[in-house]
Design goal:
The complex is a heterodimer. Chain A is mostly helical. Chain A has helices spanning 3-21, 24-44, 59-63, 65-88, 91-96, 102-130, 138-167, 170-174, 177-185, 199-207, 209-223, 227-258. The two termini of chain A are 28 Å apart. Chain B starts with 8 loop residues before the first helix and ends with a helix. The chains are: A mainly alpha, B mainly alpha.
């Protein structure tokens, strides 16, 4: 990275991080809401561990992977809404008058998502472990878990950037929330894939990438080191990241031409 | 010379309700979440958790789809009320609610109008949810009066949630009060026996669910759909009391809004 590009990314990253940290309305729901659902679901579905084939005797451990995915969904909204606000207020137009590179803009904007993803992942993990969840992969597994969670958060954040650049509207980005929830709901979120009895639901969950992201996160909590599942999880997250960045870069070019 | 008569309570209520219903039906941004979110929950719970019916001690012969349908029906009814509260807050932000307050001779009619619109939302969503559930193969073992009881409970929940959200909206008078309207309703719904019957819960969630008023309503609803009515008097008592209590809360909010000008 050239010094000029590094400076550009650094300045925008600093702004993005500060803006994220200064908005409790972005951070608090992204922390509280997934933890509340974790508490309720792990209490209400405790008996599901009695089902033959359930991979662990602790539903809390099984369910602990879900907040990481919910946190990533908040990242779509937060990253997208921040950029949409920059578009709505004309800040992006002012940036367009500077020699700023598109790559610097997008990378800098994602810095806020990285910080939020890190705060979320550490909080979910610490709260989960304090509540009695297991971490079969140990301390090294915790580091990999956080790394995977942050990668997923950033990957989903690029989709938020793309949506913001395409629509230029914070309201339109917010309306994407239910769409992304479909992916979470139609996955092996509440039960493992082998225990999804409704055939059509099982078929959808089996082709839903979110299922494999959840399984990668869960493998560290329940099994220990399952390199195949981890490789699949990181592979999917990085693929989403690459596609999201490409789409956002294309949308940025189009928007800058428009302005 | 004739003087115009001030509009009565029901005239005002009908006018407010008609406008709110038109906004709801005419704007996909309001219509789609109201319909899609309950369907997501229903599909996720009934489809993704059907194996929970095999948990030892789970005894609900009508099936897990019907078991979850009752929860999602009550949830969609409650959120129909909450979303109406969002509409009230938005009307205050845009200044439209102040015009209502200036124009209406009987301001209670404004709140009644919003409540009528919320009932429409609840019935609209419940109708779609019921059709989808039946298409998905849901069994209904209850008979006419019992099914009427189930939907009656849902409408009482809708009125209670509307009055709660209206009370918040008229106090805060900004959409920023949205989380305050939404989160307590979400909390009380999910602290009931959502996935399994109360008897199968244990630990803190059992203790909380045992004293949660929504639990009785949920269990009565599940009793109605399975043709085995249970805790009906308690559920109807709670279902009738909550709207009255929250109507008083909403009236207090209206007084605050009037005082704020």
């Amino acid at each position: 990275m050239s010094p000029g590009l590094r400076t550009q990314v650094g300045q925008l990253a600093r702004r993005s991080v500060l803006r994220t940290l200064r908005q409790p309305a972005q951070i608090v729901p992204a922390l509280i809401f997934p933890l509340f659902l974790l508490a309720v679901n792990s209490g209400g579905l405790k008996d599901a561990t009695n089902l033959p084939g359930f991979p662990t005797d602790s539903y809390l451990t099984f369910a602990l992977a879900v907040p990481f995915m919910q946190g990533a969904l908040f990242s779509v909204m937060n990253a997208g809404t921040d950029l949409a606000r920059d578009i709505e207020t004309g800040f992006l137009n002012r940036l367009a008058l500077t020699p700023l590179r598109g790559a610097a803009l997008l990378s800098g904007l994602l810095a806020g998502a990285v910080v939020l993803g890190l705060v979320q992942a550490v909080t979910y993990l610490v709260v989960g472990l304090l509540a009695g969840a297991n971490l079969a992969a140990g301390f090294g597994g915790a580091l990999v878990l956080v790394a995977l969670a942050v990668t997923i958060t950033v990957a989903f954040g690029t989709i938020g950037l793309f949506a913001a650049l395409r629509t230029g509207s914070g309201e339109a980005v917010q309306s994407l929330f239910p769409v992304f929830f479909v992916f979470l709901f139609l996955s092996a979120m509440a039960l493992p894939l082998n225990l999804l009895q409704t055939q059509w639901f099982h078929d959808i969950a089996a082709v839903n990438p979110v299922t494999y992201l959840l399984e990668a996160l869960r493998s560290l909590l329940i099994e220990g080191w399952n390199l195949g599942q981890l490789a699949l999880g990181f592979g999917i997250a990085l693929t989403v990241l690459a596609i999201g960045m490409y789409a956002a870069s294309s949308a940025l070019k189009t928007r800058l031409v428009r302005t | 010379m004739s003087t115009a008569q001030p509009a009565g309570f029901w005239t005002i209520a009908r006018a407010v309700a008609w406008r709110s219903v038109r906004i709801f039906l005419g704007n996909p941004a309001f219509l789609l979440p109201a319909v899609i979110f309950p369907l997501f929950f229903f599909v996720s719970f009934a489809g993704g958790l059907s194996a929970v019916a095999n948990v030892p001690g789970f005894d609900f012969p009508t099936g897990y789809t019907a078991f979850q349908f009752v929860f999602v029906l009550l949830q969609s009814a409650a959120f129909g009320g909450v979303f109406t509260g969002f509409g009230i807050a938005r009307d205050f932000e845009t200044g439209f609610a102040r015009r209502y307050l200036l124009a209406a001779s009987n301001r209670g009619g404004i709140v009644a109008g919003y409540a009528m619109a919320a009932l429409f939302r609840a019935i609209f969503t419940a109708a779609i949810l019921t059709v989808i559930a039946l298409l998905a193969g849901m069994n209904i073992d209850g008979e006419g009066v019992e099914i009427f009881g189930l939907y009656g409970l849902a409408l009482l929940v809708n009125i209670a949630a509307t009055m709660w959200a209206a009370g918040v909206a008229m106090r805060v008078r900004s959409i920023q009060g949205g989380p305050l309207m939404q989160f307590p309703v979400f909390l009380i719904l999910f602290l009931a026996p959502v996935y399994v019957p109360l008897a199968l819960l244990s630990g803190w969630i059992h203790a909380v669910a045992s004293v949660n008023p929504v639990t009785a309503i949920l269990e009565a609803g599940r009793g109605f759909i399975s043709g085995d009515p249970t805790v009906v008097a308690l559920a109807l008592g709670i279902g009738a009391t909550l709207p009255v209590l929250f109507a008083l809360w909403a009236r207090g909010g209206l007084r605050r809004a009037e005082a704020a000008g």
